[in-house]
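Figure S4 source data
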Amino acid sequence: MSRRSAPPVIIENVLIVDIAADGKAIGKTEDMAVFVAHAVPGDNVDVRVTGKRKNYAKGVVIRYNSLSEWRTDPVCPEFAVCGGCKWQNLIYEKQLYYKRKQVEDCLVRIGKLETPEIPPVLAAPETFYYRNKLEFTFSSSRWLTDEEMRAGGEASDRNALGFHIPSMFDKVLDIRRCCLQPDPSNAVRLAVREFAVQENMPFFNLRTHEGFLRTLVIRTSSTGEVMLIVCFYHEDVPQREKLLHFLWKRFPEITSLMYVINPKPNDSFADLDVQMYKGKPFIMEEMEGLKFKIGPKSFYQTNSAQAYRLYRTVYEFAALDGAETVYDLYAGTGTIANFVAAGAKKVVGVELVAEAIEDARYNSTLNGICNTFFFAGDVKDVFTPEFISRHGKPDVVILDPPRAGLHPGVTEALLFAMPDRIIYVSCNPSSQARDLALIDKYYRIRRVQPIDMFPHTHHVENVVALERR
């Protein structure tokens, strides 16, 4: 006897009342919360349950019974599938409301921290085409649309150049038009895809690790410069030269054209050599009269306009009078360090990526800044009592760690140094709140300022100024 699958569980008339920290909408029933994507607070929906626990369920919306007044039409043609800009259907005013709420929930409700009134989120002047860097993935097994699946799941062209489907490492959505990065990003991506197909260049298979074309990184700057980095799985000089020559001739806007041979299991090329093909080995960014060199491995805030407002906030919160020794931990290419240097006696920067430190030093020299000192290495290994004794006790420490937050060793060194003020910049208010709770006995929160670096996503940057108790 064949076993029949259980009928789907449907919950009707679920009212969407909130948004979770991961960006999913939260619906309420009499006895549980229901988490779904693509819904907006105020929607009334029917949900097919895909997973259930004691107090909550996960599901997908199968019917919209009524729509929220906070809804708006998504601009991106890939919205329903891509998973990147998941809030494009929520009006921008409410996006900012929920980002501020996320910060307040993390710091106050969950973290139990005492804060001043948290101000509104600093809104982005542009909510589309604001990113200066995107990475696209080649795949020989693209994600099929619902229409294609209904037609039998067959397609003559299975190649893709786009973004990974959420939670599926081996499935890539072929992007037609992305609304995140300004020109010539879309034109370059489409031209590369068309040329590669015409020339029978194998796209990478992320499951079997076969193929030739792996990733395409596009970086742009407010100065108009464009960097392209093409990553190949293995060397094939004739094919590689053919593609790079095509790009250089087709797009005169490109000022830096590079390539990487990456035979590793993962896509990261931080530990690999980047080879020049044509142009300069970097692009330039400008901000408040300062110039910044950005190389292929450099970290730079991906929203240039909001990066300026972020750095202005850090400078304001630091309250420098020219006599301070400032430590900039997780310094990247030294953008914050060089930005605040004019107001400090001395700035010491520490960053893991050696190439970024080289850029930071170059940026100081380029801008005639003589009071910055940069050191390469993991912050937890470099920022030690011995290092502090050698380079001077900091009056102000600026922290901008990765999403995971501070290593316990960094927190210990911070409490050894005991600076007068700490400015903590974070892209993850949850880990930020955890770290702040660990030093709450010694530091009080003086100011908070959330900043929207990524419109149409649930992500929010948050700057907290602390002073020693």
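Figure S5 source data
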Amino acid sequence: MKQRTIRNTIRIEGVGLQTGNKVSLILKSSPENSGISFIRTDLAEKPLLNLRSIEFGAGGTAERRTTVGLGPMQIQTTEHLLAALAGIGIDNIVIEMNNVELPGLDGSAKGFLNSIKKAGIAEQNEEKKFLDLKSPLWCSSGDSFLAIFPDECFSVTYMLSYPGIGTHLFNAMIDEKYFEKEIAPARTFCSQAEAMELLKRGLGKGANYDNTLVMGPNGPINNTLRFTDEPLRHKVLDLMGDLYLAGRPVKGRVIAVKSGHKLNMELVGKLRSQKISR
């Protein structure tokens, strides 16, 4: 398998789900072995953050989203764009942005994925480099659990248990076609009570009933589900985006029980500390 980048430069505009800030992205091709880089064009000296250079513990997660960086050089809500890059196999790309939070678009990875496909995918000369496990890794917190086991493919088993939604199980091997059809369109969600509390705390400023499934007693409010288990699939989407912070594509069988961004990032830290790559 060869490394991939995008063929043409493309612009994506939108509003951050949590901050409500308007943001414009410019996605550009990048050479082999360069990885994924973010540039904050709104900051002095336009600092660059390459995902492989992140020191975990400096950054991590903010409430309801994944945040990487340190001090003013932060990138918030990375999970949906990174899920799209992971799902379609983009290894090398430069993402210029003029605000702190990536756009929410429709609350899923579908808009990012469509834009990347529109830009075109260019196969590069170098072989794709995977992060390969030699032994299982796991972490837990309370009744949440997350583990990854060595495997030749990438698969996820995820159990969701959420107030007002119930308990659901997902289990699938995920390749490019499966991701595009079954995972990428799944939108972010919260309960009706959570939505009110988040607004009180100054979060969710860019959220609405179209880009966020607000789950009431009888299902989503002012919306319809794209999948009967759409919240569950979105948790898998978030997990894929967070795991891509390891800096390389990951092979393995992932087992997750009620895992969220904080636990996902803890596992990413363990993946990076092993430094097993080829």
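The two ends are 12 Å apart (CA to CA). Residues 2-128 form a domain with the Ribosomal Protein S5; domain 2 fold (CATH 3.30.230.20).
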